[in-house]
Amino acid sequence: MNSTPLIPRPLLFFAIGFSLLMLALQSVQPNLLYQRESILAGEAWRLWTGNFVHTNITHLALNLAGFWVFLLLCGQTQRLKFLIFSIIFCAFIVGIGLFLFNPQIIWYAGFSGIQYGLFLAGGIVLVIESEKVYGSALLMLVIGKMLMDAFTPTEQLSQSLIEAPVIHQAHWYGAIAGIVSTFPRIFQAIQHQPAPHV
């Protein structure tokens, strides 16, 4: 790793503002959470905004802590525009995925789906940026956590803290979106590879 700050200044300012925004959004949480019936009634914004409100302050604190851990681990290789794009894209895919493929889920709130996408995107970018061992370790850790969650029958602690069931489907949709969001950077890295010597 190089000696640049763990979180570059533009990302730091954005992260502070974004954290304060999510805290403020809790005051209007009922109007923003993913609610299937309300979406069907025309409140389409809930597909996206449900990712930015939480069931309670503990839920918010847990997800914000995860967001800051992501920045500490991956901030050196993140570009602000890419981070913002990844958040918006992951939020959209999580909402659309739940709506199209999980009609039994009538409501959802939380940033965790996006968070899984960010961690996977961050790991891939680390690999692209020549931090192959570090990036690969992060990818294996996150994928291992997702697989462990998929085969864990109950999560009593998590459910008691957030006062709601854990929606693993959102994690998978976010993860897929995070991987897809890195495609332009992957293609860019491939194009800039030096030609092999003959």
From TrEMBL:
A Pfam family this chain is assigned to: Rhomboid
Cellular component annotations (GO), alphabetically ordered: membrane
Subcellular location: Membrane
Entry's transmembrane regions: 57-75, 82-101, 107-128
Bilayer topology annotation: Multi-pass membrane protein
Claim: Membrane is one of the keywords in the record: yes
GO MF: serine-type endopeptidase activity
Classification via InterPro entries: Peptidase_S54_rhomboid_dom (IPR022764), Rhom-like_SP_proteobac (IPR023826), Rhomboid-like_sf (IPR035952)
Location of the Peptidase S54 rhomboid domain: 42-183
Protein name: Peptidase S54 rhomboid domain-containing protein
Lineage: Bacteria, Pseudomonadati, Pseudomonadota, Gammaproteobacteria, Thiotrichales
